Every structure is written in C-alpha cells, then in structure tokens.
Amino acid sequence: MAEELKRHIEAFPPVEVELPWGKPEGERRQSSLLLTTRFGNAIAVNTWNTYTWKPALAKAGVIPPRAEGAKAWQWAAAPKDGFHVLRHTYASIMLEAGESVVTLARWLGHSSPAITLGYYAHFMPEAGSKGRGAIDGLLGKGGASAR
User: Which of 8, 40, 92, 109 is most buried, most CB within 10 Å of its CB?
Assistant: First the structure.
C-alpha cells in the first residue's frame, strides 16, 4: 500500500488547503489533501459517501450493491461507525507498532493523551513489558547486584 500511495502522490501532489478543525465553525488549519475534486477542492462528505465509500463497501461485500434503477445516493446503510472505523484502525495499528500515545493523540486531534488512552489502551499489547523487562534486567539475569 505504501508504494501505491507513493505513486499517487507523485502523480497527484497533495493540495494545501485551509479547513475548519473539528467542526464547521472550528479554527481554520492548514491541511494537505491527498484526494480532491478535479478542481483541487476538498471532497464534500456526501459526494465521497455516494460515489467512493459506498461503492467500495458494496464491492467488498460489506453492504449490498445499489438496487437497479436506484438513485445515486440510495445505498444501504454502512455498518455502525462505517467510515469512522478507518480512524480506529489507523490508531490501533500505530499503537501496536509502538507509536507514542502522546504523538498519536496529537495526530488524531485529541486534546489530551488521556482521551487517546481511554479509547485505545486495549490495543497496546506490550504495555508494561518494557518496565518489567527493565526491573528483570536490574534484579535478575545479569542485572546489578543488590546493595
């Protein structure tokens, strides 16, 4: 996937735009868009949902194909948290790979790493193992002797 993304970026460089953060009236922030309209604008959520996301879900067998003769927007509902699940997948992969909770919180736009931990702590299978390893090293195999 990384190679595909690299090829896409070479063919279609990211477009720098200023968008509201978190909510429509939110603080405007600079963002790099990898996917845009043919005019280089941000893609409207309804356009994305109708012409990209729902067809992809149907092709993957997650939702049924649109009924013959149905209007472009008439798709079956996506499973609970349909698109938002991509955000959760990204976060869980980052944590399982050992990314810092503080860094991930910043990337996700959380106001505090505590929020990130609340949602994703169960994706940290190695949590605690570094500390246990350090103490084991100190007290156990080849560690410093007790004083």
Answer: 92
